[in-house]
């Protein structure tokens, strides 16, 4: 569908990315950065998925609201997303919480993070607003959702994913009728409502919303004047519109972008250390569930200028090799054995060391004779010579952050405390 000027609807839309959350369940990974700024897939950040979806969908007006420990995120956005040009009716705004409404008020909720920047939004005079979370891994064509919103005449369209009904207990669940109109919104229900005609399937909200801009601004101002509101889309705006307006569900399967190699619609909340590790390690599969090699729907990011990865030494016990692994630029695998692991930019793995099912963030050094399995290693960590992780659960628990599934998160302060 096109608008009255013969353009796709995305050209008259603004993507507004909510990227202020800490993501505390990622533990020490978010001690110095917000969750959307956490590295993913070797050379990208989590927020790059929502931003890339917007660009690939044809949206050229983008705003990113930041708050918690935003320096790493803002630096990444400035370096990697500064190619949009005002003279082409494009824009990219970084919108930190800056007490613009009140000198005592930061962003109080997701809706407030939009409300406080209404004056900026109005200057762009766009017809539609696409509200996005900046902390999920997925590929989606927002143009398709915009078309549904326009065709249905809904006040709000909410992107939802079909999940097994009893797995929906961890989500906000949309109870819909036969036309996918939302008739109730239930947060983390013990007994999730099923989709009509599909008794074992529920619709879980993905935190992606489409509004007409004028209507959204009216609702934000109404909500801001409502005493006791949490100023949040999921807690306030959406439930209000379900009860007093027309809220429509958009099924993610209709707009999910995937290649012929991807077996199913892919969406991940990498909000825990276990989920983060699993999503990264999944990329090492022969046919991964998420295809990051899709040139028709590229993952845009800040690309450092780096030399190629290098593998050196070729003798028994000291052979630089990587099997079923992703190795980024500027990595040197020097007499080290890498298996089913992901090495981000600039990693050095030294002789006689081994990595098995390891997610290694940028510019780490793996010392000689170190053996590491089922680990996440934070940026810049120097692993001492001979360190062994992943073989003694009790010892690992005392020294590092070990999850119930046996994944060890390693940071430099944890290494420093070892005194090695």
Automatic annotation (TrEMBL):
Transmembrane segments: none annotated. It catalyses: alpha-D-glucose 1-phosphate + ATP + H(+) = ADP-alpha-D-glucose + diphosphate. Keywords: ATP-binding, Carbohydrate metabolism, Glycogen biosynthesis, Glycogen metabolism, Nucleotide-binding, Nucleotidyltransferase, Transferase. CDD domains: ADP_Glucose_PP (cd02508), LbH_G1P_AT_C (cd04651). InterPro entries: ADP-Glc_PPase (IPR011831), ADP_Glu_pyroP_CS (IPR005836), GlgC_bac (IPR023049), GlmU/GlgC-like_hexapep (IPR056818), NTP_transferase_dom (IPR005835), Nucleotide-diphossugar_trans (IPR029044), Trimer_LpxA-like_sf (IPR011004). Residues 307-410 form the Glucose-1-phosphate adenylyltransferase/Bifunctional protein GlmU-like C-terminal hexapeptide domain. Gene3D superfamilies: Hexapeptide repeat proteins (2.160.10.10), Spore Coat Polysaccharide Biosynthesis Protein SpsA, Chain A (3.90.550.10). Residues 16-284 form the Nucleotidyl transferase domain. Involved in the biosynthesis of ADP-glucose, a building block required for the elongation reactions to produce glycogen. Catalyzes the reaction between ATP and alpha-D-glucose 1-phosphate (G1P) to produce pyrophosphate and ADP-Glc. Homotetramer. This is Glucose-1-phosphate adenylyltransferase. It comes from Sphingomonas taxi.
């Amino acid at each position: 569908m096109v608008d009255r000027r013969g353009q796709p609807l995305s050209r008259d839309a603004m993507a507004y990315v909510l990227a202020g959350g800490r993501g505390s369940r990622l533990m020490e990974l978010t001690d110095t950065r917000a969750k959307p700024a956490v590295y993913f897939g070797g050379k990208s950040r989590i927020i790059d998925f929502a931003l890339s979806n917007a660009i690939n969908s044809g949206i050229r007006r983008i705003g990113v609201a930041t708050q918690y420990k935003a320096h790493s995120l803002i630096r990444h956005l400035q370096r990697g997303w500064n190619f949009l040009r005002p003279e082409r009716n494009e824009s990219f705004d970084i919108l930190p919480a800056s007490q613009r409404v009140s000198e005592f008020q930061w962003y109080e909720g997701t809706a407030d993070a939009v409300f406080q920047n209404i004056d900026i939004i109005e200057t762009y005079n766009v017809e539609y607003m696409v509200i996005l979370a900046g902390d999920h891994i997925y590929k989606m064509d927002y143009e398709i959702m915009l078309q549904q919103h326009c065709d249905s005449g809904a006040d709000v369209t909410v992107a939802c994913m079909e999940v097994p009904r009893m797995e929906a207990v961890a989500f906000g669940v949309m109870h819909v009728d036969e036309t996918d109109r939302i008739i109730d919104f239930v947060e983390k229900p013990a007994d999730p409502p099923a989709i009509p005609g599909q008794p074992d399937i529920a619709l879980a909200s993905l935190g992606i919303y489409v509004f007409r801009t004028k209507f959204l601004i009216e609702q934000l101002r109404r909500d801001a004047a409502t005493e006791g509101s949490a100023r949040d889309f999921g807690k306030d705006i959406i439930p209000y519109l379900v009860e007093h307006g027309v809220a429509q569900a958009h099924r993610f399967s209709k707009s999910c972008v995937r290649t012929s190699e991807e077996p199913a619609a892919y969406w991940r909340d990498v909000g825990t250390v276990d989920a983060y590790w699993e999503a990264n390690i999944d990329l090492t599969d022969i046919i991964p569930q998420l295809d990051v090699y899709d040139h028709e729907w590229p993952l845009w990011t800040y690309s450092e200028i780096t030399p190629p990865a290098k593998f050196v030494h070729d003798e028994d016990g000291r052979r630089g090799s990587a099997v079923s692994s992703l190795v980024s630029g500027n990595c040197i695998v020097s007499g080290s054995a890498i298996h089913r692991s992901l090495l981000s930019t600039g990693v050095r793995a030294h002789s006689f060391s081994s990595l098995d099912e390891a997610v290694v963030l940028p510019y780490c050094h793996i010392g000689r004779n170190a053996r590491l399995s089922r680990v996440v290693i934070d940026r810049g960590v120097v692993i001492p010579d001979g360190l062994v992780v992943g073989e003694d659960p009790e010892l690992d628990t005392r020294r590092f952050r070990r999850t119930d599934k046996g994944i060890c998160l390693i940071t430099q302060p944890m290494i420093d405390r070892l005194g090695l």
